Amino acid sequence: MRKxxxxxxxxxxxxxxxxxxxxxxPSYQHIIPTYSxxxxxxxxxxxxxxxxxxxxxxxxxxxxxxMGGMLGIRLAAQYPVSGLVLIGTTARxxxxxxxxxxxxxxxxxxxxxxxxxxxxxxxxxxxVEQMLTPGEREQTGLYVRLDSQKWSTTALIAGLTYLEEEDxxxxxxxxxxxxxxxxxxxxxxxxxxxxxxxxxxxxGANFVQIPDCGHAPHVFVPEVVGDSLKRMVEQLAEEGNxxxx
Length: 245
Known about the structure:
The chain is an alpha/beta fold. The protein is built from 11 helices and 6 strands. Strands 2-1-3-4-5-6 form a 6-stranded parallel sheet, with helices on both faces. This is Pimeloyl-CoA synthesis protein. It comes from Brevibacillus brevis (strain 47 / JCM 6285 / NBRC 100599).
């Protein structure tokens, strides 16, 4: 059986943000849906489904970051998935209260959508600034990578609409896919409390906190994320060998 990893990136982020972790799994086939030309919020999940339709009989591990994690949750609820890894993810991104521990207020996303059309670089710079800890901001890697593959402005706006609309909470209680939740303790996009709540809502999920890390642990501490993912892969292999033939 061919082993496949599906990598689902976060809002506005380039595919190469996965490179340092993905390279640690050379025996896997790697698939990364492209969202840079999406024009409607519904197309994000459609792109994911297009990639996995031919993979039903294969071992599929889904790794989702932030918005990509939400897409991964929906996918795992509807398709056979061997393992699910959620990085900086919450089941519901928005919250009507002005409390970033519970989610972003819809007004913030609506303001970002308006500003993207007239001040795109400023919006993206502010978002990346919020993603990172002070120590991470001293490193330029993520800024350089953002310039290497830009989403269209239309795709960015569609992504914010997706984050407003998506609600994965109804899937959590029935989700049986082995799941790993990875959360930076200093994540200002998806709070530690939100990550803990997500892990607690998933039966048997393993929760990994990464100290002094913001919203992009796979970029800044890829060895930690890779080691956690390797342990999941090893556990899945052991469980698979124990099943009767």
